[in-house]
User: Fold this.
Amino acid sequence: MTNALPLSPLDGGIVPAASFASLLDRHDLAPTWDVPHGSLEVPEATTILAMRWADGVVMAGDRRATAGNVIAHRRVKKVYPADDRSAVAISGTAGMALELTKLFQTELEHYEKIEDMRLSLDGKANFLARLVRGNLPLAFQGLVVVPLFCGYDEQEEAGKLYSYDVVGGRYDEQDYATTGSGGSEARAFLKSAWTPGLAEPAAIRVAVEALVAASEEDAATGGPDPKRGIYPNIVTVTADGYREVPDEEIAPIAIDVMEGRP
Amino acid sequence: MTMPFYVPPEQLIKDRAEFARKGIQRGRPIAVVEYDGGILLIGENPNRSLHKTGEIYDRVAFAGVGRYNEFEMLRVAGIRYADVKGYAYARGDVTAKGLANAYSQTLGQIFTHEVKPYEVEVVVAELGDDDNHLFHVRYDGTLRDKQDFAILGGDEDRLTEEIGSSHRSDMGLEDAIALTTRSIQDATENEIPPGDWEAGVLDRSLGRRKFRRLSIDEIAPPT
Assistant:
């Protein structure tokens, strides 16, 4: 890294300030994967979900990553803060998804510092779509990354959800969204359990129940594991900001849910 | 063919320094002072949205005086430098020292090579666990490591004396604000309306990102 600062504010004309991603391109630091044809078994992250509740959104993910039929990691974190008012969860090829998350987080903070204001929630969702789209060539070789995004829209004063497909298509979701290998099972559960205007504890409980339901049908989704102290990642985003629900709060709910399962 | 006049390098440097210094002295000063819970950056700025202080990275903040477009360029370049470095390595690897050196190199280069030197001075402040760092970079690239507090622009000597005589690093935020606002008004012989202050702090009690702006009510509590 050179020590002198590149002072090129206009970049050849009056255009919006260079994004962090384009800055990385210039320094040859952008994350790239040049994959030859063939198949490869790399860890994959599985079930994630998000739903709206009375004051905002809740987002949850199981903790398992699998490579083929092997459990690669038991304590993977799949739900991250994107910034102080939004969260992102990842499914698909874990390594690439984690890098994409880091790039997304840095980009949002970079914008906020330079412009002295946060990007709008729609702006963040669109930028994430661009990152997913950039990954399309690799998706054809089985290295798929599909995130979920949610946040609190400060202009509309409401929680919002966004889901994506592999080509970077961005979809606004109304009530709840799921993705990953156990996503369809979790969605089926949410279809019957989700109701509008849930309170926070109820929303957290429904999220745990949906993940437990998914883990019972999908081998790649890990259920709560009280013996090892592994519980789902759950976060909430409201007007007050991003909050990670601590394990101590999730543990009793998870144990109760598992005991109540038929 | 006309021959360019010979200008001795001493004269050239002197002229440029004088030019830059004049531009900076005309501006309103900023004080960066340590207090018990962090570092305060404060100065007069009637502009509500064009800031002179700002966040660079988790524990690193910036203050600049002089020409707005020039120090704004430095601020943005500093954020780019910090974000790229933190992304490529780790967040803890971004330090005020690295950035201050980069500013020093850049300003030094501009001072000798460009048609016109930058009429700016900047401070890079870093909140440490035990000790803080304040780096003062001048228009010609001179880099200095300051203790306790740093003054940018205005009548620097007088303000250093005013603040230095009663500053203590263990003073509270309210006392630090009272001291700096009083000293700046005394040194500039100018009464500054409460709404015309701009201030930010690197606050040790905050989470990962330590910088926050102070509201007008926090700077000048309504009496």
Remarks:
- Chain A has a mean pLDDT of 91.
- Chain A is about 35% helix and 25% strand.
- Chain A has one domain: 43-260.
